[in-house]
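Quick log. Single chain, no ligands specified.
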Amino acid sequence: MQFEQLPTPCFVVDEALIEKNLKILNGVMQRTGAKIVLAQKAFSMTAMYPLIGEYLSGATASGLYEARLGHEEMGKENHVFAPAYREEEMDEIISICDHIIFNSFSQLAKFKDKALQAGRKVGLRVNPECSTQEGHEIYDPCSPGSRFGAKQEDFRAELLEGVSGLHFHTLCQQNSDDLETTLNAVVEKFGQWLPQMEWINFGGGHHITREDYDIPRLEACIKRMQNDYGLEVYLEPGEAVALNAGFLVTSVLDFHKNGMDIAILDTSATCHMPDVLEMPYRPPLIGSGEVGEKPHLYRLGGQTCLSGDVIGDYSFDEPLKEGDRLVFEDMAIYSMVKTNTFNGMPLPAIAVKRKDGDCEVVREFGYQDFKMRLA
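-> predicted structure:
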């Protein structure tokens, strides 16, 4: 199947672009000895797991279901962190996860012994109280009132026995200068406990595969922990694995005019690309321009009843026509994992563009996928 023959709406993940990112990440691993695992919360397309497993050390999860996915589909190192664990799920989590990271000393006290008895590595998430983000408190684990990680004042040395590593995750789509700043805070606040640890996990949010990312600075941060404390270093990026490697193909259904030209698409911001509204941001669209850049301006919106179901304003060289196909870029990350069926919107198909250029639809959805989520 050719790209132009794909149904719409459809997520398309480019195998060659995924591999390009993986080679960059694997290069960091080879040069430093660090281990990098896929954060499934950003990208959990299992059709790509065999390829990802060729280059990375495994996967990390945010709960039982993602942990099962990593265990069943990746079959390598399997890490998990959650703000709190359900007691009835812990036996299964312990049976399938190598690293189990707890958010608090109360969770450590409750579950640590059981995990250690099963031979699992136990970690504690820390909060270095060092915000490096601007304007996105929703994505800042160090913001006031954050529910993530033990602060320095919370530490209970008597419960650290058996804890082999510390974990921090404070970044979101950031460069390694922010990692370096955060690492300084981690050492300042928790350095006294690092000599008794075996490993440290830098979490995610590292945009390692972005063109302007400072990889040498990242590697210096890794080597600092290795040289100063003898620690094994883990990183768990999600976005960096599939950054700029996916597309959302959609079709123009109709037009409306209300002070400006409006095009109604067969996709939806609220259902298929919710980060557009949550972040918010304006996703790149192939062949389009900014407002005023090209002669024909349209507001692109979805089919749902939500008035704010708007993707953004885009300009074009030629007027749009019914049936035109539009291709949004960088749609592999935090898109497929967040889709929903509000208003009964069909979920986009999922396809892979193979290295030879052929496309293969690997999953399609229908009415039953909507119905099964309701009672």
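The chain has two domains: 3-11+246-331+339-371, 33-242.
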